Amino acid sequence: MATEKGSISIHTENIFPIIKKFLYSDNEIFLRELVSNAVDAVQKIKRLASLGQFNGEVGEPLVEVKLDEKAKTITISDNGLGMTAEEIKKYINQVAFSGASEFVEKFKDAKDANEIIGKFGLGFYSAFMVADLVEIQTLSYQEGAKPAKWTCDGSTEFEISEGSRTTRGTDIILHVNADSEEFLSEQKLQEILDKYAKFLPVPIKFGTKTEQVEDGKDEEGKTKYTSVEVDNIVNTTSPIWTKSPADLSDKDYLDFYRQLYPFSDEPLFWIHLNVDYPFNLTGVLYFPKVKEDFDMQRNKIKLFSRQVFITDEVKDIVPEFLMLLHGVIDSPDIPLNVSRSFLQADSNVKKINTYITKKVADKLAELFKADRKAYEEKWSDIGLFVKYGMITEEKFYEKAKDFALLTNTQNEHFTLEDYKAKVSPLQTDKNGNVVYLYTTDTDKQDGFIQAANKKDYDVLVMSHPIDGHFVSTLEQKLEKTQLKRVDASVANQLIEKDEKLESVLSEEQSNNVKTVFEQAINKPGYNVEVVALNPDDAPVTITMDEFMRRMKDMAKMGGGMSFYGNMPDSYKVAINGNHKLINKILSTTDSAEQSKYAKQAVDLALLSQGMLTGAELTAFVSRSVELI
């Protein structure tokens, strides 16, 4: 067979229905696309005027959205550069021929040419998702141009004729179809404009609104107000992320935060992003006061592209540990899919992710160095971000280890380096490992904390659900350092030393005591051992193995530890052979009496751990009354 070459044929009548129905994820995007196109047109005429290629009167830039419920039309008007009939044929009739791309290429050396929003040349066709007839009325800025009219019913047929527009610019008139009449509502259109057009760089007018203005004084000298109708401008054309930080006050940042999140507490602080190499990125990220329900606080960072809202799904751009931040990111270099609704992965996304991580680390380091006391006061809120980052991002850990704080039960704060220096003298075991003790619940574990404090051991507070993972990270990163929960064992055995207390019991007596307690407990998963402790320590201490308990805690947080979460609980029961109660048990030959005292001591240990409930708790109370 002879070799044959040719071109793949794409028929408009086949691809046009796909563009109309499946290109966009949500019908409401039609308004974003058409308003963005109108903004482009206004930006272009301003650019041409600044370059001396248009000498007419530019006028006040404006895009207007009009609704006619009776006629079932939505009109998007602008006073931009308009189009000739030939330009309509070129930019509208040729699918995916982007006028914005051609314009930017032509004027790529001009300042701020990238303000032009459009990219793919497909946005106009989103109109057919909601309209069964679309009409264009336009008049070009070019000298001697005649108005042109274009109509299309959603098929591949169109009509161009003389238009009726008398001023420069374009009207896009949508005759809304029966399936999309939900958009013939002022409230609905206002919601869409608030979502997508709130920060576009050209004023967007949508009807009018009533405002109260001062109207002199009354007889008592009080200010009078009167109601007036004014244009309803839906957007702020110069949001703070487009400005220099030097031109902004704290009030500006807080006002903007309240505009974005009107029902939120004031943020702790913020970071202004501004980079132009190797990619363009601006934005403001706020550190909020973190609530317990983390999922409710996610998706609060809004992604823009040249001030057009795109999405609040930013997990690829923003590191996972910063997903609880609030604010905005704006970049023309973030790769979007054809419908400008979703991110596409490429090297710029990774670079932006890395940049944001670095900026956050630098800001935290700056706050720590500038005012450590103020930083410590914010730590309960900041700590979640820092710990999460240290767990998940190696590069962030390397920076954060200098400003991450550990907090003890006296509410004192230490850097990692400071804390090691503090506890090393007393809390180094016989193998040279420094042992950090910590509590996950200061109330429930108070007895263990006090026992540790009696030995002058310091105890850290690690009470947040994420702390289980943070503890493991610290053990991996800190050289010759172990972390143990304060109730992982009796105080004497938390940190293994060379010195040991002598037992007052013989081997036979120890075995007898062990048997008495095993029979009194009579439950699987409880491993009894008799140990030599200080006579003043508790007679019985019940603890869970440190490794197993930690794995179970982490299993509750997820992260691939569910295997441990399903394993049965296993406890270590340490009997203090030097306690006077043990001598009392050994001194009686009545097995029932021995069992009663052993059971009481075990229940006390369970009670101290919050593990005594139901019928067992009731029996303990009755037995306590009997023993009084």
Automatic annotation (TrEMBL):
CDD domains named in the record: HATPase_Hsp90-like
Entry keyword set: ATP-binding, Chaperone, Nucleotide-binding
UniProt xrefs under Gene3D superfamilies: 3.30.230.80, 3.40.50.11260, Heat shock protein 90, C-terminal domain (1.20.120.790), Histidine kinase-like ATPase, C-terminal domain (3.30.565.10)
Pfam family name, one: HATPase_c_3
InterPro entries, sorted: HATPase_C_sf, HSP90_C, Hsp90_fam, Hsp90_N, Ribosomal_Su5_D2-typ_SF
Record has Signal as a keyword: no
Annotated PANTHER family: HEAT SHOCK PROTEIN 90 FAMILY MEMBER
Family assignment from sequence similarity: Belongs to the heat shock protein 90 family.
Name listed for the protein in its UniProt record: Molecular chaperone HtpG
Species name: Pedobacter montanisoli
Gene name of the record: htpG
